[in-house]
């Protein structure tokens, strides 16, 4: 193992710790809201995320992953930064417009939606800075930033909510903390790490941001579809059961999201290496990495499912409130179904690392159709638990479609390279 590889591996726990703290912050915020204001307010917050999530993920265009896998540093950091800034400003304007046009929202719900949109705007800028640090193998910088941001945000939310401050004001206050950390910590560190220059061929092109956007557009579509697929059950629960039922579904869903963030951190820590391994035809190492991630996430879900089935009521009642007691079946279904969701997420990162973007669009369109149709149909028959089963069927569809595609691409890469075996473990 090279010194650089050893140093990289030593930094992986920093990224994992940052994502763990971020997950705890998200979960803790929902728990605080549930205990302070109840499930209805959780539902309003979740609906704001459901509206803003697909929008910002589309305009983010997964530039973080594209930047992190830009091995040759074809584009300058400012090309990524200004493209992200322009698109995020547009997303913020559209989110505010959507909130204004949704006349059915009450005044508090509208303010929460707008506050969430502003928070997502700030988050999108830090996300890109993390991509620059990640490409430079500075996972420690990402982890430290996420840890500081999460701890400061949770403590601020705890103080404000216990003093009776409204949710939208809490969210705006948290966004102020995030913006300050981005300006003082994330952006300067990213600029110092991204020292490479764009290639001469790229610099000769008149509009590199347009070229970058054209390359990233399929990733943006995929990210938006992924978010729409995740939030579609929330729209259905709100339509069928209202804000209170949505608050219960979303509160339990944030536990799944905590595990999702851990899986994301693991994927982010290896995606640059996956891209390099595939490019240099080290297919066996590529497969071992992906298989290891899937095995670990599956074990996590199996253990989580057993805990949810055995102690679900006690966990939900103590973490949230008595409104969540009696939902251990819903809890167990989501945890066990997440095994396929986490696996599909890992395969998405792997297919991004090999440069296959457009095929993901087809996979997620099919998944959305399955998730939406099954969730609506089963939700009408079995309530929110039926929606969770529909969500799990969508996760299974993603995994089942993406796995054979990745196996095929890996096999083709190995067959088309005469010296693949020689460079396999180099």
Overview in brief:
The chain has 426 residues and is mainly alpha-helical.
Identify the notable features of this structure and list them briefly.
single chain; disordered C terminus; globular; 426 residues
Structural class: mainly alpha
Main sheet makeup: none
> How far apart, in Å, are the first and last alpha carbons?
9 Å
Q: Which oligomerization state do the chains in this entry correspond to?
A: single chain
How confident is the prediction overall: mean pLDDT?
A: 83
Query: How many helical stretches?
Result: 13
Name the overall outline: globular
Instruction: Bin the helical content.
Output: over 70%
| Number of structural units classed as domains | 1
Strand content: under 5%
Regions with pLDDT < 50 over 5+ consecutive residues? 197-206, 418-426
- Taking all Cα atoms into account, the compactness measure Rg is 21 Å
Strand/helix succession: HHHHHHHHHHHHH
Number of strands: 0
Q: Can you characterise this structure?
A:
With 426 residues, the chain is mainly α. The protein has one domain. It is built from 13 helices and no strands. Helix 9 packs across helix 11 and helix 10 packs antiparallel against helix 11. It starts with a helix and ends in an 11-residue tail after the last helix. The C terminus is likely disordered.
């Amino acid at each position: 193992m090279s010194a650089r590889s050893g140093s990289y591996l030593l930094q992986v726990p920093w990224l994992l710790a940052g994502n763990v703290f971020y997950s705890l912050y998200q979960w803790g915020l929902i728990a605080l809201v549930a205990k302070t204001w109840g499930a209805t307010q959780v539902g309003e917050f979740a609906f704001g995320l459901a509206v803003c999530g697909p929008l910002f993920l589309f305009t983010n265009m997964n530039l973080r992953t594209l930047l992190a896998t830009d091995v040759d540093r074809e584009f300058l950091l400012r090309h990524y930064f200004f493209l992200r800034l322009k698109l995020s400003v547009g997303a913020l304007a559209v989110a505010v417009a959507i909130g204004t046009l949704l006349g059915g929202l009450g005044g508090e719900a509208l303010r929460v939606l707008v506050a969430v949109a502003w928070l997502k705007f700030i988050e999108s800028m830090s996300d890109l800075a993390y991509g620059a640090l990640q490409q430079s193998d500075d996972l420690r910088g990402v982890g430290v930033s996420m840890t500081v941001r999460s701890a400061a945000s949770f403590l601020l939310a705890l103080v404000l909510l216990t003093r009776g401050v409204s949710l939208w004001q809490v969210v705006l206050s948290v966004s102020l903390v995030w913006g300050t950390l981005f300006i003082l910590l994330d952006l300067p560190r990213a600029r110092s790490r991204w020292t490479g220059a764009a290639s001469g061929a790229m610099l000769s092109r008149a509009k590199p941001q347009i070229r970058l956007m054209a390359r990233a557009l399929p990733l943006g579509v995929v990210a938006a579809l992924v978010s729409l697929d995740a939030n579609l059950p929330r729209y259905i629960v709100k339509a069928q059961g209202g804000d209170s039922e949505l608050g219960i579904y979303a509160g339990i869903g944030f536990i799944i999201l905590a595990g999702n963030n851990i899986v994301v951190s693991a994927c982010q820590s290896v995606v640059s290496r996956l891209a390099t391994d595939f490019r240099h035809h080290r297919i066996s190492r590529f497969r071992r990495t992906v298989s290891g991630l899937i095995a670990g996430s599956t074990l996590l879900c199996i253990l989580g499912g057993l805990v949810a089935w055995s102690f679900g009521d006690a966990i939900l009642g103590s973490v949230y409130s008595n409104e969540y007691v009696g939902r251990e079946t819903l809890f167990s279904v989501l945890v066990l179904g997440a095994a396929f969701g986490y696996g599909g997420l890992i395969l998405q990162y792997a297919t991004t690392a090999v440069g296959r973007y457009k095929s993901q669009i087809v996979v997620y369109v099919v998944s959305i159709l399955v998730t939406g149709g099954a969730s609506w149909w089963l939700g009408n028959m079995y309530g929110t638990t039926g929606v969770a089963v529909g969500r799990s069927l969508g996760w299974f569809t993603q995994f089942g479609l993406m796995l054979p595609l990745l196996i095929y691409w890996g096999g083709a890469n190995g067959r088309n390279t005469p010296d693949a075996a020689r460079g396999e473990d180099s």
